[in-house]
Amino acid sequence: MCFSAPASFIASGGLIALGAASLTVAQRENKILALVPLLFGIQQGFEGVQWLYLNHGVTSLFAGYGFLFFAFVVWPIYVPAFVYILDRKQRKILKWFLMLGIIVSIFFLSVLLTQSVAIGELKACVNYRFNVPFKNLADMAYLAAVFCPLFASSKKIFQWFGVTIAILADITWLFFTVTFTSVWCFFSAVVSSMFFLYLRSKKSNS
């Protein structure tokens, strides 16, 4: 997250609270979706801890790897997984994106386990640097695993989430290219609050 530790912790606390609220209103089959804001909240918490260290001129590898684990290992498999589970109509197509997500997550997990990570502050954002083999191909596979199941879904809520985070990804790439991972994950985390509104509306209509 950009700006400061307080901003990250406020976002983290709000998302965790929203995730908890989502779990209380979600029907059993939607629990996996209700966890999305909560997981984003935990991820933002790691970055808040990172800011505390950066403010003292040092870094935390634990917080760094925690944040990156969510960014590159959890989300490439979790997004296609919850879309696949909740969208029975499109499972023939979605299963391929789920398989891709598993491959992408395993690939980036191996990268994080074998490559050193450099962490620093750049233009009021946290900057994570590590070597990714076949980077262009890996980036394309990552984006496909995250975006394609959302766009391929028959459910409007997933399509809207996909469109929104895609627009935010473009904005982030234009203005925060070097710190893309940190900034885009924050934007996506905030947008995930739409799932709480969706789950609450479904409970009201049930």
Compact summary:
Helix content is 76%, strand content 5%.
Describe the protein in words.
This protein is mainly alpha-helical. The chain has one domain. Helices cover 76% and strands 5% of the residues. It is built from 8 helices and 2 strands. It has helices spanning 5-25, 31-54, 61-86, 91-114, 135-152, 156-175, 180-191, 194-205, and strands at residues 118-122, 125-129. A hairpin with a 2-residue loop joins β1 (118-122) and β2. The longest helix has 26 residues, at 61-86. The relative contact order is 0.16. The mean pLDDT is 87.
Task: List strands and helices in order, with pairings.
Layout (H helix, E strand, L loop, with lengths): L4 H21 L5 H24 L6 H26 L4 H24 L3 E5 L2 E5 L5 H18 L3 H20 L4 H12 L2 H12 L1
Radius of gyration (CA) equals: 17 Å
Proportion of residues in β-strands: under 5%
- The tally of strands reads 2
* Helix amount: over 70%
Cα separation of the termini: 37 Å
Bulk shape: globular
Largest sheet: 2 strands, antiparallel
In spatial order, strands of the major sheet run: 1-2
Mean pLDDT: 87
Order of helices and strands: HHHHEEHHHH
Count helical runs.
Answer: 8
Any descriptors?
206 residues; mainly alpha; two-stranded antiparallel ribbon; 2 strands; 76% helix; 5% strand
